[in-house]
Amino acid sequence: MSKTFWVNKDFDVFQIDGLENRMEALIANVRPKFEELGSHFSHYFSGTLGNEYFPHVAKHARRSVNPPKDSWVAFAPYKRGYKALPHFQIGLWGSHLFIIVAVIYEAPDKVAIAERLLKKKTLFNKLPANYIISGDHMKIDTTPLKGAKKEELTQLLTRLRDVKKGEFLVGIHIPREEAVTYSDEAFLQLAENTFEQLLPIYKEMVQIK
């Protein structure tokens, strides 16, 4: 049987009851894969964007009661954290895998970022039809980009600009049933292809030519 990068056991972690038990399984099964992806794609971003990028694997250290519903590795050009900057992520919920670029509410420059993206909405027309957008990284619900290129896209970017808790995410969601079919090589290629599609939007966010 050929090896796949993700397996059902990785997604099943998020069905385990209790913070301690879920974290134990997350650390044993999923975190090593995030660390592997972190090493691989931090080199990719550093080489592609000409600045050193660092991987940030979610530790969920502040949790004391509620177990995490999702987990991820993020990439940003800052060693001490990523939340204040536009960043890329690869992560899992119990139902799917996600590969995204995001601006979340901690970003101090999010008003200017939103204004730049509102002026360059045509960048989103170049993304594949299966991409999604969202205004909240804590929620599983998303909007298909194909049906949102005008109204919902504008609404989410306006909310990012005008609302303190406003956020913006764009990328792909892959159902777990599909995610567990990718070999190591195929998944790395999928992730790289996705990041390449998202780079023009990221470059507009951070004002890189």
If you had to describe this structure to a student in words, what would you say it looks like?
With 209 residues, the chain is an alpha+beta fold. It has one domain: Protein of unknown function DUF1054 (BirA Bifunctional Protein, domain 2, 2-Layer Sandwich). Helix content is 41%, strand content 19%. The chain has helices spanning 8-12, 19-49, 110-119, 151-162, 176-179, 184-206; strands at residues 54-57, 70-76, 87-93, 96-103, 132-134, 143-144, 168-175. A seven-stranded antiparallel beta sheet has the order 1-2-3-4-7-5-6. A hairpin with a 2-residue loop joins strand 3 (87-93) and strand 4 (96-103). Helix 3 (110-119) packs antiparallel against helix 4 (151-162) and helix 3 crosses helix 6 (184-206). The longest helix has 31 residues, at 19-49. The model has no long low-confidence stretch (mean pLDDT 94).
What's a concise summary of this model?
41% of the residues lie in helices and 19% in strands. It is built from six helices and seven strands. The longest helix has 31 residues, at 19-49.
Which stretches are low in confidence, meaning pLDDT under 50 for 5 or more residues running?
none
The first-level CATH class is given as Alpha Beta
Report how far apart the termini are: 45 Å
Query: Which assembly state applies to the chains in this document?
Result: single chain
Overall shape: globular
Number of helices: 6
| Largest sheet report | 7 strands, antiparallel
Rg calc: 17 Å
